[in-house]
């Protein structure tokens, strides 16, 4: 073992709830972060809802809900419908904070817990969240490592090779989605020990 290498110590689990999937035109409504070690022990959490103007919220009525294959899930309705059902829309209106304040607080949290290293982003289909970060939150992007831990990679493998899938809770709220992703990764890692 090479003792001169610096190995990652923590994971920055992150989930964004957005008005749609276009990082140029859509906006972030909620961010959740859980920092864990590699035994998945929670070291810090962060959750914030971002205030958006009504015109941005109204555009969500035009954003359909997609399934994992990229097909529209008509029964799910629109992003607006989902955000109404799970209470996020109401939180945005009543408890939403300015985006600049949220990103400043998130920057402080990352620097405090990750230090001078670049944070390894973790989550499910985390590349989509990363596109929004890259486009809209460049200060956060500068703190991130180019490598990411994407649970959906194992999901694809387990579905295709073994016809197995972990059923996550369907909350579509940031912290709950992260905890579901951590449970999903633990499930797949346990199964992989058998193969």
Can you walk through the features of this model?
This protein is α/β, with parallel strands linked by helices. The protein has one domain: Nucleotidyltransferase, domain 5, CATH 3.30.420. It is 43% helix and 19% strand. It contains eight helices and five strands; from the N terminus they run βββααααβααβαα. Strands 3-2-1-4-5 form a five-stranded mixed beta sheet, sandwiched between helices. Helix 7 crosses helix 8. It is globular. The mean pLDDT is 90.
Q: What's the topology here?
A:
Elements: E1 11-18, E2 28-36, E3 42-49, H1 54-59, H2 79-85, H3 88-95, H4 99-114, E4 119-123, H5 126-136, H6 138-141, E5 144-150, H7 151-162, H8 174-192
Parallel strand pairs: 1-4, 4-5
Antiparallel strand pairs: 1-2, 2-3
Helix pairs in contact: 7-8
CATH superfamily: Ribonuclease H-like superfamily/Ribonuclease H
Question: Can you summarize the main beta sheet?
Answer: 5 strands, mixed
> End-to-end distance, in Å?
25 Å
Domain count: 1
What would a concise description of this structure say?
The protein has 195 residues and is α/β, with parallel strands linked by helices.
Give keywords.
195 residues, alpha/beta, Nucleotidyltransferase, domain 5, 5-stranded mixed beta sheet, 8 helices, 19% strand
């Amino acid at each position: 073992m090479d003792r001169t290498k610096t190995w990652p110590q923590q994971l920055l689990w992150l989930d964004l709830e957005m008005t749609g999937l276009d990082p140029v035109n859509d906006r972030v409504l909620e961010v959740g972060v859980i920092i864990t070690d590699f035994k998945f022990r929670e070291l810090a959490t962060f959750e914030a809802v971002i205030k958006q103007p009504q015109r941005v919220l109204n555009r969500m009525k035009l954003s359909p809900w997609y399934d994992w294959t990229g097909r529209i899930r008509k029964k799910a309705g629109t992003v607006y419908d989902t955000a109404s059902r799970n209470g996020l829309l109401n939180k945005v209106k009543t408890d939403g904070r300015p985006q600049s304040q949220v990103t400043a607080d998130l920057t402080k949290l990352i620097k405090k817990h990750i230090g001078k290293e670049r944070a390894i982003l973790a989550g499910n289909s985390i590349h989509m969240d990363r596109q929004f970060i890259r486009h809209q939150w460049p200060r956060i992007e500068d703190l991130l490592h180019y490598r990411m831990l994407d649970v959906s990679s194992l999901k694809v493998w387990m579905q295709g090779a073994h016809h197995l899938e972990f059923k996550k809770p369907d909350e579509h709220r940031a912290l709950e989605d992260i905890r579901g992703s951590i449970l999903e990764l633990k499930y797949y890692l346990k199964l992989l020990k058998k193969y």
